[in-house]
Amino acid sequence: MSNKLSLCIPVHNTEGFFSECLLSLQNQNLSNCSLKQSDIEIVIINDCSTGKDSIGRDCKKIVKDFKRQNKFRINYIVHYNKKALLETRRELVFESHSPLIMMVDSDDLLEPDYISVLYNIISTTDSDIVQGGARSFKMENGEKVFIKQNRAGTVYNGELRGNDILKSWAVDRTSSAFLWAKVIKKELYLKAFDQLLYSDCTVADDLPLYFFLALFAKKYIGTSQNVYLYRNNSGITSTPVVNSMEQWERICSMASGFSNLVLWINNKTEEDGKSPIADDVRAGIQMMFLKHLHTSVLQLRNFVAPEIKDEAREMLYDYWGESFVLKMEQQVIAEEEKKNQTAQNNSTISR
User: Fold this and answer.
1) 3-class secondary-structure state, position 320
2) Rounded distance, CA 131 to CA 174, Å?
3) How would you write 55-104 as a 3-class SS string?
4) Which residue stretches of the chain are H helix?
5) Cα separations (Å) of 80 from 45, 46, 302?
6) Sign of the dihedral through C-alpha 273, 276, 278, 279
7) pTM above the 0.85 mark?
8) Quick one: 5-231 is in which CATH superfamily?
9) Cβ(152)–Cβ(230) under 8 Å?
10) What is the pLDDT of residues 83-108, one digit of tens each?
């Protein structure tokens, strides 16, 4: 392979942020590692993106201007039919020409030492996964305001091997499934995708994929040094109000990723006569499953537009199973009633 590292970037209507993302890539400090810009490939998939940046440039024009100013190798691909994000990531990996992969979301930013820190660790330790720290921010009056929250991901600061890699994420929650802020061997990605069936998962797409990455990885190293800036409230689930069935379907699609994962675990258990994962890992994944369904039910009850609510409920049934959704709705109603009762009791006491 002629390239040493591939940065894989999916773009869908994020042109307003994309040029800033590429600028943070242009400003990488490579003096602390053995890489030059020409050693680095940037794989960009324009997934039916129709956005424009502040000066009216579309995705193709932004990439063209960036290419003119830099020596990075650019592999630019256009989708004329929209794909699920998980499948776009699959294509990004297949289209890359390097042994190492970094996933970057097109609305986020990279710290100046993002590449050098992660590349130096993985190239000197023969790790399968290297993860760095991340900070979450939002823009207020043109300035970055950093947010203290778990959304930016949790990093295990040190080395993990074998089964402890999966356990750290699924059970101990000492590492995150986010694909950004990581450099991962391409061969590990290919092995994971070989097990992961086609999915229309666009939300929480990193969870089923990272399950296989963590399952097959032999060595993980994490560093608490911040290398990534996660932009808060810019994704498709950041705005709670749901006004279209297209938007709602993308939210529901997370179920397909979990379904594929559960199907693989059950089939593997039947083939081998034993589960491929420990009981505590299975329980941890089930908790994630329930958490995401819980969030979807809350969105349906409180944020889906009234005119599409009935249709949205039927779609939620289709993706998750009607009985499963009904049980979760009962749980949510009970939680709301308990919360209201507590508030009434506190109000009475305060008088």
Assistant:
1) helix
2) 12
3) CCCCHHHHHHHHHHHCCCEEEEEEECCCCCHHHHHHHHHHHCCCCEEEEC
4) 15-26, 59-69, 85-95, 114-125, 163-167, 186-195, 206-216, 245-252, 254-272, 279-302, 309-320, 322-350
5) 11, 9, 34
6) negative
7) yes
8) Spore Coat Polysaccharide Biosynthesis Protein SpsA; Chain A (3.90.550.10)
9) yes
10) 999 999 999 999 999 999 999 999 99
